[in-house]
Amino acid sequence: MQVISKIMISFLILFIIFTILEKLFPAIRSKRVFRDGFKLDLLYWVVAPTINAAIKNGSAIVVIVLIATILGLKLDDDIVQGFGPISQQPAGLVIVEMLLLGDFIGYWTHRWFHRQRLWKFHAIHHSSEELDWLSSVRVHPLNQAISNSINVAIMLALGFPLLVLAAYLPFILFYSILLHANVSWSFGPLRYVIASPRFHRWHHTSEEQGLDKNFAGLFPIYDLIFGTFYMPHDKQPEKFGILDKDCPTTLWGQMCYPFKKNSNKAL
């Protein structure tokens, strides 16, 4: 009951904050609060935290044990506190390195999920046709579990402390909610330094010029380096979703959708 209460309180706080922000700084002014897909995304907010947490935590435990076993590390000391050269650095530097490396891993994992075989899992996240903060949690649990496991495995194998990593993942989750918000922010002169809602909204567009662009979750520099950056000064995306009309609009249907053999990539 305490877990459910915390989820409800967190949701209400986020609902108030982002509803106000989306009204004050809207990217699309005509968007309704109770828009199409609202009930589905609300259901994701109710169900996803429990399901995703169970799968994510379970996969994380498996990864932690595997890394410790393969590298001969001690769970209490080496995994929790970190090991090697990284553990000898100042905490601030470790955090910066974790953010940079984590986003680099996330960039390529994200691109991987846009390829044919894994797209069916990631398409669920792109299926919302009216993008806002609420749609940020519309994610298939296997998509999240695989992405997190890859990130955690590499970080731990390099010696990053689990204590810092445990704080990194919730931060990424909150920032992801902000990136999906229906706000016009581009962060001005920092547009090429920090990922903004406008930057990420171009990633979700179904408009041709924005397809397979802006994969980074924090630092657009990776998109600039690898040629996937797109964020024009004079316009914002207006159309979202995927072109595959076979994608279900129910929670259970979307959980099963990636396993349909005839599901192809079709933004």
Considering the chains and any ligands shown, give keywords for the structure.
single chain; mainly alpha; 267 residues
Topology diagram in text:
Blueprint: H1 2-24, H2 38-71, H3 75-81, H4 84-87, H5 91-113, H6 116-126, H7 141-158, H8 162-179, H9 197-204, H10 221-225, H11 251-256
Helix pairs in contact: 2-7, 5-7
Write a brief caption for the model.
By secondary structure, the chain is mainly alpha-helical. The protein contains eleven helices and no strands.
- Estimated structural class: mainly alpha
Mean pLDDT rating? 88
N- to C-terminal distance:
40 Å
Could you state the order of secondary-structure elements as H and E?
HHHHHHHHHHH
Which oligomerization state do the chains in this entry correspond to? single chain
Envelope shape: globular
Helix percentage range: 55-70%
Question: How much is the radius of gyration in Å?
Answer: 19 Å
Strand-residue proportion: under 5%
Kindly give the count of domains: 1
